[in-house]
Amino acid sequence: MKKTIQWTGMILAAALVLAACGQNNEEKTSATPSQAAASPSSSQTASASPELSPIQEGTIKLQEETKKLQEAIEKQDAAEVKRLGKAINDAWLAYENSVRQTFPLEYTEVEKYEMPIFSASAYDKVDFDSLKVTAEKLQGALAALLNAKETTGTTSELLEKAVANYKTYVEEQAEQLVSQTKVFVEAVKAGDAEKAKLEYPKARVFFENIEPIAESFGDLDPRIDARLADVEDENTWSGFHRIEKALWLDNSMEGMDAYADLLVKDTEELLAKVKTLELEPKAMVAGAMELLNEAAISKITGEEEIYSHTDLVDFAANVDGSKSVYLAIIPALNEKNTDLADQLDKQFQLLEKTLGEHQTDGVFVSYDKLTTEQIRAISDQISQLSNLMSQTASIL
């Protein structure tokens, strides 16, 4: 998939994609002698190694480009980092479809770390520290891919592992939600409105990534995410949007300490519940569809972030969360409907590109700055994505 420019902070945190995929996979084997010799620092090239498969050759090339990126990061050479970010993306695009078909679990690991590297290549300001960590993780994912053995397991076994990896992703997002909410709350309680406004969307993205999961826990979701229009008595209103109103409309944080403390407590409860959750592929897909439908029909009006106008952050997070579901069901798509997998891949690409056009140096513009035509384009593309996701339900 051609990668598109996404908000750096959100991408690096969310990491839209599945955690721990391809790791601890009993179906991987140790490297063969020819594989072990072929490393980013080795003088041996793919062309001189006829024993290597095309996927191994592509992976070695990608390792070499990533090694150059790591060297440029150490030198803090921003121009070279940007050039190599694009080169890495080109190298991945050259063979990613083959990887998706043959090694779906390893594919998601590489995808998770390659995307933010490419995204950062377009920003004026390079976050060298974050990119250093991401590049190291990409090298680890590439090493796992290079040594991977084509699975002999059934599709159902692969799907079971992928769903387990998705649950890990959900848990990590919930943990990040708690952590980032505490940072946001600290700013609120300190009376630092400007910092609180900066931290608000950073916390929101982790909730929006896993919103369908949160909605499965009764009144916990409205306690965290209800809007004023959702409640009958404003005195019972709590959560992110209660504080959002105080920050952007009331311009006063008086009385917000209690709501801030309650928000931390509720996100911690969400994390605890997530850890006990049992997931099923069809339920995951249904949640993703519901989330996309809600975004295309109601959230698109700007009702979600009516005071802060950070709606594009929510949309991007909803798309990332839905994409993580798509990645989880790739084993089933590979077996039963590769055409649908390709269509989903392209539609995610298109929507990410469209959303990326509304960023400045990786930060989304205020939603009220978009034209009616721009909003309609986003809505139509989200609707199409939801329709494609609905078709996956029949193969699970």
What sequence of helices (H) and strands (E) makes up the elements? Answer: HHHHHHHHHHHHHHHHHEEH
Instruction: Please provide the count of β strands.
Output: 2
The helix count comes to 18
Mean pLDDT: 86
Strand content: under 5%
Using the alpha-carbon principal axes, give the shape. globular
Q: Separation of termini?
A: 23 Å
Main sheet record: 2 strands, antiparallel
Residue stretches low in confidence (pLDDT < 50, at least 5 long) are 1-49
Short description:
By secondary structure, the protein is mainly α.
What does this structure look like?
Helix 9 (193-209) packs antiparallel against helix 12. The protein has 18 helices and 2 strands. The longest helix is centred in the middle third of the chain and has 35 residues, at 155-189. The protein has a two-stranded antiparallel sheet. 47% of the residues are buried. 67% of the residues lie in helices and 1% in strands. With 396 residues, it is mainly alpha-helical. The chain has helices at residues 8-14, 33-37, 54-75, 78-93, 96-102, 104-120, 128-146, 155-189, 193-209, 211-214, 220-225, 240-250, 256-274, 281-297, 311-328, 330-336, 338-356, 372-392; strands spanning 359-360, 363-364. The chain has a domain at 28-150. The two termini are 23 Å apart. Residues 30-50 have a biased composition (Low complexity). Keywords: Signal.
